[in-house]
Amino acid sequence: MKNTTFSKMRLWGFTVFLLYQVSVLYGQTAENPYLKTTDSLYRKLEKAKTVTEEEFQKAKMLIYDMSDNAFYKDAEKYIFLFKEIADRQQNKKEIAHFYHTLGYNYKKQSLYEKSIESYQRSLELRTEIDDKRGVSLILNNLGNIYYDMGLYSLAIEAYRKNILILKELNNNNKIASALSGIGNVLSDQKRYDEALKNYREALTISLKLKDTVRLATVHTNIGEVNYLLKNYDEALNYFQKSLHYAQAIDYQYLEGYALVGIGSIYLDQGDYEKAEEFLQKSLQVRLHLKSPLEIALSEVELARLYKTTGKTDKSIDLAQKAHQISKEISFLKGEMLASELLASGYEQKGNYREALNFYKNFKTVTDSLFNFEEKKTINEYQTQIRVEKETYDLKIKQSQQKSFYNLLLISLGLLLLVIVVWVLRSRKIQRKQTEMLIRQKEMEAEQKILYSTQKERRRISQDMHDDLGTSLSGLHIYSEILTKKTTENNKEEHLKLVEMTKEITQKVRDIVWTLNNENDSLSNLTHYCSRYAENLFDNFPIRLSSDFKTEIPVIKVSGQMRKELFLCVKEALNNVLKHSEATRVTLGFAYLNEVFSITVHDNGKGSESVRKHSGNGIKNMNSRMQNIGGTFTMSSKKGTKVVFEVKIAQTGE
Fold first, then answer.
1. Which residue, 528, 500, 509, is CA-closest to 598?
2. What pLDDT is stored for residue 4 in this prediction?
3. pLDDT of 191-225, one tens digit each?
4. Which of 361, 404, 451, 506 could lock onto 339 through a cystine, CB 3.0 to 4.6 A?
5. What's the whole-number mean pLDDT along residues 102-116?
6. Is residue 580 within 8 Å of 604, Cβ to Cβ?
7. Least trusted range by pLDDT, from 390-404, 412-426, 542-556
């Protein structure tokens, strides 16, 4: 049963691999979903006089999407088309960017020589325009390519230069990628402790940044070192975490590495069924991505599985494929691993000539990867990196000490400033409290004076009402009695006397009302004005209407305001009586939006007649309203309309 299953899997894997080879040789057969959008953008930018950085960025992102989804030919075509636009505009920054995307596209295809050439051209342009961030990114990518090609000394040199630039930019966050790259080189050199030190430093930075891509990568790196040290439980834990991070962001490239790591652990532990499950999954993912280097690595591990389980033919078949791919893309590590498996496999099959050939190839590649000069160069670079790191850390420490002393001086200065401010503020508060105390005493004195004044006003009002008012009322009554007893010849003079006493009595009442502070409210004012108008027009053929347009609140007002408003109303009503020849008059009151208004509107001859006969009266009304901060308006609209307005807050004047 197991043999049947393995045969089916072998046939399926071989079919998929053939399809991959055909797709590489004869181009892309799947439909490119980015083609329409990219072509539309190109046609738009090709006609534009100037192209913005945002539009170039959109073009680059579309090209990256094509490369990531293996539409390499389309990506390359549009890289050159968009680069022509950048050339036409002499935009060196964007030209450098497009060389960068070209290098990325070639790297995805494992065309390392072309990728290096493109990256080097981008590096020259970025150096020329002093784009240090761009230079840093290219150095990191070159380091990764050199590592994949087994050129360890070049790889570690690129990573070292990248770290120096990142420190110059004070960008410690991006250092994690370079540290991982150095760790990979040291791991391949079997310097596991140093590799783990770099990986853990990168992990600390990645956790701080919550960089999921970098977290997946570093967990895979640490897992691989622990696997090589045969710490299988710890290695499995790291690979599983890496798989979780990769699947969370649907990053199949890193998912493939995690699956291979887990499969290799199960292989070493003898759980061959699980080992094949994970290794086949990794191969499927990598075939889908059309990534030759990673395909070769998965095939090497599957070949190792089949060699261990006695399926020598399947092992040789997969190792041959891995060896062929590795040679095509100059992947020395893959060629070394495949050659070792092929030497062992052909030896088991009794084909000693082939076994010897592949063993020689294995030794040659191994010597190339791990020769003495290469190790010496790596040691020198590693020492240089360590010295540079210690120098940088020392500078940081000195800078921190300097910052501490500066901070201490600033703190002392701030403390002194706080003390000075506190003293000044305390004096200001004390002075303010003294002023408030003086003001309070003044207010108390004013209140006493006001109370005494109001008390005196009330007394005068009462005395006038009780004494003078009573006397005038008696005089008025006596005058009326005399009028009734007089003859017709003297009756007119007596009637004038009656009117005079009546008028004097009303004036006294007005004065008494004005003096009495108990009447200092808005509602009292309106009611008094209304009663006054009723009494005034009682004996005349003029119909009076009192109109309370809104509810008049009980708001306290000053005696002066009450007096001025009443005298204005009195003047306006008397003008109606004397000059308007009106038959109707309306007295209106309203309080809206903290504005109190009194309206006197008649249906008489109009304001011109009033102005003609009552010039001083109008001036007096205007003056009185100005005294209390109010306004006076008079207009002719179906008679004469007089409006008095003054702003009175809800809390009182």
1. 528
2. 38
3. 889 889 989 988 998 898 888 988 999 999 999 99
4. 361
5. 91
6. yes
7. 390-404
- The yes-or-no verdict on residue 437 having pLDDT over 50 is yes
Cα 283 to Cα 296: distance, rounded to the nearest angstrom: 9
Contact 235, 227 (CB under 8 A): yes
3-state secondary structure 561-592: HHHHHHHHHHHHHHHHHHHHCCCEEEEEEEEE
Q: Tokens standing for 23? A: 């797709």
Contact 542, 482 (CB under 8 A): no
Q: Return the residue matching tokens 């090609």.
A: 149
Tell me: pLDDT of 70 over 70.
yes
Give the least confident one: 23-37, 103-117, 149-163, 320-334: 23-37
Q: Work out the burial of residue 97: count CB atoms within 10 Å of its CB; fewer than 13 is exposed, 13-18 middle, 19 or more buried.
A: buried
Confidence of residue 577 (pLDDT cuts 50, 70, 90): confident
Treating both helix axes as pointing N-terminal to C-terminal, what angle do 232-248 and 252-268 enclose, rounded to 10 degrees?
Answer: 160
Q: Which residues contact 359 (CB under 8 A, 6 or more apart)?
A: 339, 340, 343
Burial (0-12, 13-18, 19+ Cβ within 10 Å), 173: middle
Q: Which is more confident, 340 or 172?
A: 340
Rg (CA), the chain: 52
Where residue 134 falls (left for φ over 0; alpha for ψ -120 to 50; beta otherwise) is alpha
* H helix count then E strand count, the chain: 25, 5
- pTM for this entry: 0.52
Report residue 425 as tokens.
């503020």
Q: Which residues contact 307 (CB under 8 A, 6 or more apart)?
A: 315, 341, 344, 345, 348
- With beta carbons less than 8 A apart as the criterion, state whether 100 and 137 touch: yes
